[in-house]
Structure formats: C-alpha cells, structure tokens
Input
Amino acid sequence: MKSISPIVAFTLLATVAPLLAGCGSSTAASKSGSEPAGAASSKEPVTLLNVSYDPTRELYEEFNADFAKHYEEETGTPVTIEQSHGGAGKQARAVIDGLKADVVTLAIAYDIDQIAELTGLFPKDWQKRLDNNSCPYTSTIVFLVRSGNPKQIKDWDDLVKDGVEVITPNPKTSGGARYNYLGAWGYALKKFGNDEQKARDFVKKLYENVPVLGSGARDSTTTFVQREQGDVLITWENEALLALKELGPEKFEIVTPSVSILAEPPVTVVDKNAAAHGAQEAAVAYLKYLYSPAGQRLAAKHFYRPSLKEHAAPEDLERFKEIELFNVDEVFGGWPEAQAKHFNDGGLFDVIQEEIASSK
Amino acid sequence: MNASTLPTTLESPESWQVAGPQLRTATEESTWVRWLLVGSTLTFLTLVLFVPLAAIFAEALRKGWAAYFASFNNPNFWSAVKLSFLATGISVPANLIFGVAASWAIAKFDFRGKSLLITLIDLPFAVSPVVSGLIYVLLFGMTGWLGPWLSSHNIQIIFAVPGIVLATIFVTFPFVARELIPLMQEQGSEEEQAAVSLGANGWQTFFRVTLPNVKWALLYGVILSTARAMGEFGAVSVVSGHIRGKTNTLPLHIEVLYNEYNFVAAFAVASLLTLLALVTLVLKTTLEWRIQRDLEEAAKSE
Output
C-alpha cells in the first residue's frame, strides 16, 4: 500500500497541472492582449475582430490602419483591429462555432445568412442595414492566364475545350468558387437560350478540366502562380489584378470574358459579439467608414469596384473593364435558392462531381 | 519425410562439406545488390528529403540575407513565436508529468485494463491531427456540448490560446510515455522494492531510484514532444481561428505569409523550424545512444 501513494500523487498532479497551466495561459493571454492598448487615453480602448474571406487581406491591412487613425481622431477612442482570413465558408463556420467576430466581411450573403440563422447573433434582415445591400464594394469573375495566352483563352467557351487545365477552388468551402461555378452556369444559360440541361453539360465539361479543387481563392491562386499548375485560373477580378501586381505583369495576363457574374461581398456587424465587449459603436463606425470617400478610394486601390465611383482615383477605375454583368438574384433567384440547388450536399455540384469521378 | 531423406544425407557425407560454404548469411549479398539497395535509398532520400530541405533555405535566401532577416522584423512573427513557445511550454511539462505517471503505473504495477490504457495513450498517433482539432470544436464550440455554458460564463476555449494549448497537448501526449514504458518494463521493479525495504518512502524511491534510471529516455521523450509541439499544424489550425498577431502559431504564420505572396518570409520562418528540427535530430541521436547503454546495463544486471 505504501508504494502506491506516489502514483496517486502523480495522477493527481497530472490532472491538476493542465488546469493550473490553463489558468496561467489565460492570464498570459489577457495580459498580452491589453499591452498594445496601454497608451494613455481618456477613453477605454476597443478591439475589433474582422473575420473576412481570402482576397481581402491587403485591402483590410491598409483600411484598418486608416480607420484606427480616423476613429481615434473623431472619438478619442483608440481602436485595434484584428484580422482573420480564410475561405468564406470555413470562416462563417468558425463564427458559428464560436469565433468572436465583431464584424464579418465575407464573400457571399449566403454565408452571413447562415451565421444569422444558426446563431441569432444578429437579425436575419442584416442585409438591409447598410447601403447597396450591405456591399460597400463589388467585383466580378475573370480569368488569369500565362503570359502570351498560349491556349488562346478568350471566353468561357474556351474553358471547356479538351486539353485546357482549369484551376478553381472548391465551391463547398470557397465563396469565390461558387461565383466561378455560377458564372459559368449563367454564361451557358445565356448562350443556350436558358436550356438548363445544356448549361449543366457545359459546367460538367468545365469541371472535367479541373485537376484539383483548392480550399479557397488564395489557395488556388498560389497553385496557379507559384506551383505553375494549369492553363487558366478562374478567380475574382480583384485577386487577378493583385496577382498581376504582386507577381509581375510580364508573367500573366487577365482575360475578361464577354459576360460575367456580379460578385457582391457583403459586410455586417455581429451585434451580440460586439455588444458583449462594448465595441458595438466602433463596429458600426468601422463598416460605415468602408462607404466613406477614404474607404471607397482604398477599395478601388485594392482592386475592388467601389459602389461610389466618384470617390475613387481615376487611374484605379481605369483598371476595371466594361463588362456585361448578371447577378445571382436575376439568374438564380437569390443565394438561398442557388445554394440549395447547386451547392448543398447532394446538390448539382455533388452530382456533377460524382459523374466525373465515375466516368474516369 | 525424415525417414526417407535421412539415409541419403548419411550416405554422402561429402555433400555436407560442399553445401557448407553455400549456406548464405543475411548480409552476404552480392556487391551489385548492395549497391542497388544503397543507391536507391540514397536517391529516394535525396528526392524526398535533401532537395526539399535545401529548397527551403534556397527560397528563404533568394533575395539575400537582408531580406531574410527582415522577415523576422514583424510583430506578427514575434507574437507567433511567443504563442508557439507558450503552447510548447505548457504542453511539454504537462505531458512530462502525465508520461511519468502513466509509465510508472504501467511498468511497475499490474492492474485491470492496463492494455487498454496503453492503447489509449497511442490514440493521438492513430488519429489524424485535423480530427484531434475537430474534437475540441465539437466539445467547446458554440454548437458543441460545452460551448453555450462556457460562453455564458465568458470562457473562451477554442479560437483562443487555451484551445491551441489543448490541441497541442493532445497531439504530443504519447511521446514521453511511449519512451518510458519499454525502458521501465525492462528495468523491472526490483530496485524500487529494495529501496522500499531499506525504508525509503515513495518520493525518495521515485527521485533517487526510478528517475535517475530513466532520465535519458525522459529527455528523449521531452525533445520529441517539444519538436512536435512547435511544428504542429493540422490540429492547431482547426482550433486557431487564424487571428493574426493573436492566435497564429509559427506553422500557421508560415501559411499566412505564403498566402500573401510573401514567399521569402514564409520560407525564412520555415527555415527556423527546419533548423529546430535539425537540432532535435542531433539531440535525438545522442540520446538514443545513451538509452541503448541504459538498456544494456539493465539487461546485464539481470
């Protein structure tokens, strides 16, 4: 019996130590969290967490610094903005699972609808709270090809040709990928006089040319530009313009198709999360600032089409080609319908993928 | 069979002598087989190990040393370093205590469910790291079992530091125990029994007899779990929430840099983790030698 006591002691220690360690970690975390806000100020500093999708990294990096300066000047409250990026579907899932976002700035309204529906953290009619359906900026879907356009890709038709490798992410996890898919579908509907079956065949042929589905827009971009896979990348216009800027215009070309889809990435405040730590006011101001002349100028600078063109620099606007755009509401009857028909489990995208897999 | 073959062998004893030199030992392959084996191993290692390893440093230094060092001059990098050290600093001691307790119990005592316990310790090796992360999301997430209760008490586990620490503990906890159990079993409990019979109490027995006997294996386990804790990506990625400057560990920071077309910085940070791995390898080899010696001594003393 005597020899058993060390075991008991150790088992006890083993169970208690992680708890002790856990306490230590939480105090350490809160300490480091308050460090940057230690500056002397008349008002309590606030922190905002912006949970966003993939290609907005560069936009929000500059916008956050600009807003923090503006907000402190206006209200005297220092504000720190934290950023999280990833595939829009994955990010929405994280907020639903408890990531404490104060604002979400995601790729498509449907993902934000899901958060509202499953968590009740903000009202379901959130999209009416800000102008332009809560989309301070828009974009569209274009193609990125290698310099000289070796496969002569001009329009959506060229993506379904034999021997063309197409890079696009997985619509299950990426908002941009859903736009890519619907863009192709919408083009085919227009081309074949609204023949659903022909549109389906067209999209199936396109996905037969996709060797691998990335998890998010940025993942697919690095696959195309860094790992040099594929002949054409279907992506956001802003992502294509950024890739051109970052990686050299001599290496790639942007191809604008004859028709494309209007991408509307919306934003909203996650009311209950923001209110829980007194950041409601700052969160609202943050999103409103996106519509301000400064916010609109930055959006255009970072390759998003501003909703208020008059505030953008003319040389930034020049980069956006005139293009015939259709939107999700017109062609697909809105996001909930498009999602249920195409992207939910067992939806058309799954069926098409299964057909492709079984024919291989 | 034996009855019919036996006489023939007896009849020709010379054939024994002829057959003798033709008996092959395991290492007596012809030269070309040996070279083929060595050659293919080296080719394989070059392709999957040395070339990628060299590529990390080549990419990191592509724009020179100045750009390389500039990669570390970034607050998000330092917060990732701090978080990685914090997660490692908590999970390794926790696993050290758990590992010693578990292997002590398993090696020195007999009890029901012992083999089940050994199997359970191995669980994190068998489970994909992503699943390990998801376990915590299911437990502590808002839609999970404990999420709503935790949230109403203002406790944040996942998408915060505690979740990252928990995930790291989970993926590293077999290392120490797996190293200690075989050694302790080999050593048996005679020395402890002798100590107790001479009047040592439990703590004295542990610190003066058991611990000195296993110190090298213990250190080995600690080094392995440190390396894994610093490098863990999958499980931590699931519970992190990817808030830059706050919940990104070093491997997650590398992913962020890579995704921002900041390839030099991504590979520069990756080269740090690689250097850490190389140091680990050297320490590991040294310790393996010492543990081997301990094992031999244990075998001799029996």
Q: What stands out?
A: The first helix of chain B runs from residue 2 to 11. Confidence is low (pLDDT under 50) at residues 1-20 of chain B. Chain B touches chain A through 49 residues (CB under 8 Å). The radius of gyration of chain B is 27 Å.
